[in-house]
Here is the input.
Amino acid sequence: MALDAETRDQLVDTVRRFVTERLRPLEAQVAEANAVPEPIIAEMRDLGLFGLSIPEEFGGLDLSMEDECLVIFEMGRTSPAFRSEFGTNVGIGSQGLVMFGNDEQKAKWLPGIAAGTTVTSFALTEPEAGSDSAAVQTRATLDGDAYVLNGSKRYITNAAKAGLFTVMARSNPDVKGGGGVSAFLVPSDLPGITVGPPEKKMGQHGAQIHDITFDNVRVPVENRLGEEGEGFKVAMQVLDKGRLHIGALCVGVAERLIADCVAYAGERKQFGQALSNFQMVQAMIADCKTECMAARALVLESARKRDAGQTIVLEAAAAKYYASEMVGRVADKAVQIFGGAGYVADYGIERLYRDVRIFRIYEGTSQVQQIVIARETMKRGG
Ligand code: COS
Here is the structure.
């Protein structure tokens, strides 16, 4: 549901202030400790950030996609690890349930997800199923009133904090590809589930990813999400929305980097004058700004189409592809404008440079987005 303009602006303002006053001062500390402090997570719960996309009847804010993007633009103006705390609840961890859950499933889980007392994770990727996500090998074997899950999932965000996983598993081994896959709501405390240690990553320190193994985990039949064999399509539709969200995040980080570049170029003097007087520096700022504006417009236009009920498979892929590549270029130019100061840790630019690298990989690599864009364009005849 779209908020009225005044309420929406108030929400965006509140998030902007929260980012500026509470989160930005903690960026280096969070990266160093590799964790977001619990009092900050409590403030995120109080602000309703865990429930941005959850229907109001379950305690969420039920934002339209456009409004969600406006909030995420603001969240992008700090370390992306902060957004990751609630990002799975807003996006890939909850949306299968929001879109395909039945009344009982929603009533059981969504209030906790909206409040942030239940963290969710999206468990699709496996050691042998990355970009080829239809190739999942985790098995779900029907046995009486339960499916028995066996297999493992890889690089799952927030797995150690999660109370609920949405797991894609192969319920029909005779059907290769996506048609043999079903989706399941799996409480993380079921016997037979093991969450591995956090991976050591290039960036986004403070956000954690883990492997999960399922060893004869009995998941009640009523926890299946949608029909048997629908799991791959559930995952793809969840990812369509997720890709818009990540596109918005990329725009936010790019806006932050551009503001940092403008401030630094105004202060830093070389050859007797501010860097901002040099046209070669101005050219870099101009390119960053133009591309960032284009990405912002593409993300918002695509979000509005989703809100209007249109299919956004192509648009979500294009928004994520363009915005994630764009922020990579912006981060690279930011290091260049800061020079040596961009390469050392004190200014935070090298940290953001590392942080944004994953945007071109997770929720579908740039190459997967190109495949989707090309297929959809050809389907539409241009
Ligand atoms: N919405 C609804 N249905 C979709 C869909 C979407 N966005 N995308 C695909 N489908 C359907 C197709 O219509 C097709 O249905 P039918 O079998 O009824 O015709 C079925 O799903 C299979 O689709 P497709 O043939 O396109 O599957 P592919 O195996 O070729 O895979 C890609 C397509 C590569 C695009 C997909 O596997 C993908 O997105 N991979 C990346 C996964 C990813 O983002 N991982 C990140 C993990 S989460 S951080």
In short: The mean pLDDT is 98. Residues 55 and 175 are 35 Å apart (CA to CA). The chain has 13 helices and ten strands. The chain has three domains: 5-115, 120-229, 233-380.
